Structure to design on (144 residues):
């Protein structure tokens, strides 16, 4: 008999090793000011079309965008580069899986750096308060 999903997931994570961690906090008013000042140019530079559409589909758009921004910053911190060189903000895309859990998708230079570091997966947690979004990202690889 096969174990339940939660047990399979727990077993899978026991066979993984943590490579790095990144965390970031975003202030809603500061992000709102950036959007007001730079409009679509800022949004298109930082967020993928899907991320923008996801944010447009919810009641509190700025909360959703701030969470995604914090998540992208957390990922840049865990790969150890920050935003520089050939890295594009849109090399990191944050989407939700069918159960609502945020999932990190990487491409371009970020994917290349993650591959070099042996990062197989990035797990992510995002939370919000009235004025802030915080994201914590953990890079993992198979143990052994």
């Amino acid at each position: 008999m096969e174990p339940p999903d939660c047990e399979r997931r727990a077993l899978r994570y026991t066979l993984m090793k943590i490579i790095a961690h990144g965390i970031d906090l975003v202030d809603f008013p500061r992000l709102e000011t950036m959007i007001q000042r730079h409009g679509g140019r800022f949004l298109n530079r930082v967020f993928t079309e899907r991320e923008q559409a996801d944010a447009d589909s919810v009641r509190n758009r700025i909360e959703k965008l701030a969470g995604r921004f914090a998540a992208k910053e957390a990922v840049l911190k865990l790969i150890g580069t920050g935003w520089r060189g050939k890295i594009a903000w849109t090399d990191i895309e944050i989407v939700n899986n069918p159960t609502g859990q945020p999932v990190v998708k990487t491409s371009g230079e970020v994917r290349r750096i993650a591959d070099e570091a042996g990062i197989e997966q990035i797990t992510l947690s995002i939370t919000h308060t009235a004025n802030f979004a915080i994201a914590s990202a953990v890079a993992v690889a198979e143990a052994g």
